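Lab notebook, design round three. We kept the backbone fixed and only want residue identities now. Task for the bench partner: fill in a sequence for the structure below.
Input structure tokens:
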């Protein structure tokens, strides 16, 4: 496998893993909309863990959600998926670091290292899928409430935390796909048969050739 592809895939996976760590504590997963409001004295914003408010003087007040079981189902699922994304990304980074050719941790068995690197690519893909499902599900509920004319509560818009999550998921999936397919093609090439293989039934010996030449010479001497 091309070492450049390995390094690029590893960098994409690492960048996606860092962005997941940035997206989880980001406070602006959704922000209150100003659509239809003439005067706004405060701005509300939430993430997976807390709800905050900012008044016109710039004072921030945040309150953590008091109960996990009292939260909406999609919010609990988004929490679990984001945590799983961090764990899967950690496994992917470790496997990719061991499996790339420029790392000597796995020895000189490049076929085994390729399989380990491909496993890291699978972890990156799973990380990206978990992140994309989490942020997309969260965004779907925001838009559903926003366009619902009879929704009585505060309406929100998409925050920057969701965009960071989408970017993270895209990078993770791209890096994982590159790593998996590059390692797969490298493994298949190493297992392909040699283009020319002589028949095993015929064995040529140097001693036998010398005996044949000697017998021919002896016959010619008596002619």
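Proposed sequence:
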């Amino acid at each position: 496998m091309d070492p450049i592809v390995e390094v690029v895939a590893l960098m994409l996976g690492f960048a996606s893993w860092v962005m997941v760590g940035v997206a989880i504590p980001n406070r602006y997963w959704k922000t209150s909309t100003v659509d239809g409001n003439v005067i706004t004295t405060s701005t509300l914003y939430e993430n997976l863990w807390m709800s905050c408010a900012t008044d016109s003087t710039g004072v921030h007040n945040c309150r953590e959600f008091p109960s996990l079981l009292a939260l909406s189902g999609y919010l609990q699922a988004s929490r679990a998926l984001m945590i799983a994304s961090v764990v899967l990304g950690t496994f992917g980074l470790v496997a990719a670091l061991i499996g790339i050719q420029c790392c000597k941790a796995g020895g000189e068995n490049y076929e085994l290292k390729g399989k380990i690197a491909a496993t890291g690519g699978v972890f990156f893909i799973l990380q990206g899928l978990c992140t994309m499902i989490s942020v997309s599900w969260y965004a779907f509920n925001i838009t559903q409430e926003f366009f619902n004319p009879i929704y009585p509560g505060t309406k929100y818009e998409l925050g920057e935390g969701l965009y960071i999550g989408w970017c993270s998921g895209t990078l993770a999936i791209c890096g994982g796909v590159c790593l998996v397919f590059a390692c797969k093609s490298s493994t298949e090439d190493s297992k392909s048969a040699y283009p020319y293989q002589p028949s095993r039934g015929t064995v040529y010996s140097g001693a036998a050739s010398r005996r044949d030449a000697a017998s021919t010479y002896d016959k010619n001497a008596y002619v």
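Keep this in mind before ordering anything: The radius of gyration is 31 Å.
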